[in-house]
Amino acid sequence: MNRQVLLELIDIVIYMGRHNLAFRGHYEDWSSNSRGNFKDLVMLMSKNSGPLAEHINCIQQNGKRETSFISWQRQNQLIEAIAEDISFQIRSFIKTVRMFSISIDTTFDASRNEQISFIIRYADEVTGEVHERLLAVKESPITSGKKLYDIFVNVMEAENLNWKEELVGQSYDGASNMRGNYNGLQAHIKEESPQALFVWCHSHRLALVVKQAVSCNFNAVDLFGNLETLYELVDEDDDDGCTLL
């Protein structure tokens, strides 16, 4: 019964991950009307699952004396276990084809922290189909070329990838810390992996072309300037420290 319960909990975690749903709520007591997405989905599925319904009943009767598999710690463990399984499958594919490329970009999240995403790209050995997979997301307040290189090496070592011999391509935006010939990320990587060809990200190049084209039209300049001003007004904090957005 415990195996069946865990299988259903894993299905819930995968479903929520695919739909980018938050797991937890503010009040997660069983008596609460809204317990967070994870617990609410557990309750919903228990209506049509005998093992899960029995498990929930035991938790509600025995309280903390019953191993629940549903606490926030167990949720995190399920997420980590599934993430490790996905990473293992990606590593297995790459070790089979022995060739991959990497794309790295940074952006600010809602809390204004710099997030660094690592996208890995490889081709299926049999069909030739190209796959792109999110390998890792890291946070760093410093985004110099050397710092990004150190984070890159840590990710490669954590995933046990032989990047010095099997990395054949790298793609970033046009910022100096990424494409710089001497201190940029691509230069640091090429010192250890000379075959890793650097390609300026075509999406970023297109964005620069569009920006340059739009900047020639005064109406467009006014439009985007007003939108930026409006965004700053809506997003700024009020006197109580609450975001107006």
Distance between the termini: 46 Å
Beta strands, count:
5
Structural class: alpha/beta
The number of helical runs is 10
Rg from Cα: 24 Å
Uncertain spans: none
Main sheet: strand order: 3-2-1-4-5
Protein name: Zinc finger MYM-type protein 1-like
Organism: Sipha flava
InterPro entries: DUF4371
Domain DUF4371: 9-184
Account of the protein in words:
The structure is a single chain. This protein has helices spanning 2-18, 37-46, 50-62, 72-97, 145-158, 163-166, 176-179, 185-192, 202-214, 218-235, and strands at 100-108, 114-123, 130-139, 167-172, 197-200. It has a five-stranded mixed beta sheet with strand order 3-2-1-4-5. The model has no long low-confidence stretch (mean pLDDT 86). The chain is 52% helix and 16% strand. The protein has 245 residues and is an alpha/beta fold. It comes from Sipha flava (yellow sugarcane aphid). Residues 9-184 form the DUF4371 domain. InterPro entries: DUF4371 (IPR025398). This is Zinc finger MYM-type protein 1-like.
What's this entry about, in short?
The chain is α/β, with parallel strands linked by helices and 245 residues long. It is built from ten helices and five strands.
Key features of this structure:
245 residues; alpha/beta; five-stranded mixed β-sheet; 10 helices
Topology:
Layout: H1 2-18, H2 37-46, H3 50-62, H4 72-97, E1 100-108, E2 114-123, E3 130-139, H5 145-158, H6 163-166, E4 167-172, H7 176-179, H8 185-192, E5 197-200, H9 202-214, H10 218-235
